[in-house]
Amino acid sequence: MSADQLVPNAGDRNAEKILHPDPFSARVKLFSALLILCAVIAYFPAINAGFIWDDTPLLTANPQMQSEHGLKEIWLGKNTCDYTPLTLTVFWLERSLWGDTSTGYHLVNILLHALAGILLWRTLLALRAPGSWLAALLFVIHPVNVASVAWIAELKNTLSAAFFFAAIFAFLCSGKNRNTRHYLLAITLFTLAGLSKGAVVTMPIVLCACLLWMKKKIVWNDVARLVPFALIALLISFLTIHYQSRAVDYGLISSDLLFRIARAGTVVWHYLVGLVFPTNLSPMLPQWQPDLVSPFVYLPGILLIAVLGVFVWTRKTWGRPFLFVSGYYLWMLLPVLGFVWMALQQQTPAADWWQYLAAPGIFAGIAGGVVMVSRSASKNARLGLSVVVAVILTLLLVQTWRRSAIYQSMETYCRAILAENPHAWIAQNNLGVVLEQRGELEPAISCYRQALRDNPRYLEAHNNLGNVLAAARNWPEAETEFLSALHLSPANAAVLGNLADNYFRQGKIREAFATDGAAVKADRYNPQRYVAFGRKLAANQQFEQATVCFRNALLLNPGDLSIQLNLVQALVAAGHGEDAFALGQQALRTAQESGNQQIVQAVAAILNQSRPPAR
Question: Going from the N-terminus, what domains does the chain have, and what CATH number goes with each?
Fold first, then answer.
């Protein structure tokens, strides 16, 4: 039996068995295993890929991922521009399992993507959609989804999709069987999806469309069943908008309504072309600045409305399935079309991973069309169609396999973006970071300068350029860049700290101390701010003040051996030998227990200097 035979024809006596097969039956296991296998093959190059883009600040360099206190901060929504606590909790758990080894993170993403494909298949079966397994296969292997699967940070896409499709499936099962348990499960799964990614707030309307598809009408009981989903969606929407508003607005895109309308139509067609002809996909597109006076900029949107209008007009005949899949697709895209402000749209007007939840609508339409044509074709025509479909699927899988390779490292990803969009300022900056870490200072400086030419308000590039100029001992220019960054964000502790270091290297002691003081004030709960200030004070022979800084740092992080070592050294230099000896002995025991021989030797040497005289 083929996968498409799982979808019944009208009047099939075994419809219920086919529409709701035993999840542990041999054929369900087989087709599920095939989807998993295809996902692993398609994304095999990504399994050993590294960390890219915002994987580092989100995961490997995120203090929240390193303690139970961080888990509390995640759910309280601290230090984030997007409220996705369940996704971050999964990262927290993964960090405890995989550490800084990227393979485990990639495997989880790939398997979640395959699970989302399986749940999509089961959901389309419940909707009596022809070609349901083929649609799921397209979803699993299509190259438009590579960013969502091969990029660790996009766990929020794969995780939310699994919960999203599971919630729809549970809801449909609850309506068929009047099963309260399935209904409550659907509400729970939707809540989990919303805590994974806010884009799933579109679900209540999707459920309404599913009911119309199944029953052709909605009664008041159906409306009542949708109310909890609508309330949860409103809460998630509020949280998403609230946290997105924290992000920096660089003023790079217009807030004009006409601009947003003109761009939305073009973006939709861009997405559609990428689904049908995925040969020119780009992770980051150049910003588009349309001439709003010209009527031609509105043609894509007008054409889109016209096509949708035809489907509405013919909804009682051949247009009904087209209206369903196109309506689902456009509705799922609505949050990312630019009508609601999104921080990432300052970098690109469209991104492949933004249509991850929308694309299954088009895949279902394509797969359904293929199956319906096959059913009405002759035997030879069906054979030819099968060959064509097999070739297309193979090409898609190969394309996905090839695109997965660009996610091998930050450098391969940035260079892939810049090859297609040289003005991608954030890619220029991130490439500069890679080059700087390799010691290639001049190429790094060129990258940062190009990023600032494309976006003069990019604080991170000013800060990074200042650091690399300081590393090249070009103190005056470095100072200019740090001051430019502070003009954009006067209380940025990281930039203040870098400027203080730059002042100190130039011998501007008073300015260095004042700036370090401002950095401590801006980030008073960060022990490293006190350590940086304390080291400068100690280097300037101000040991008493240095001990105050190190003590404050130690209060915030009592177990940090390096802070204890700094305090012991400052106490010795300040003439507090007994205090230094007592603290040094404590630090020595801790270092010996942890096996940190470098600290052991350093503390032992200090203890020999600070040992109080025998009485």
Answer: 23-407 (no CATH), 422-523 (1.25.40.10), 541-615 (1.25.40.10)
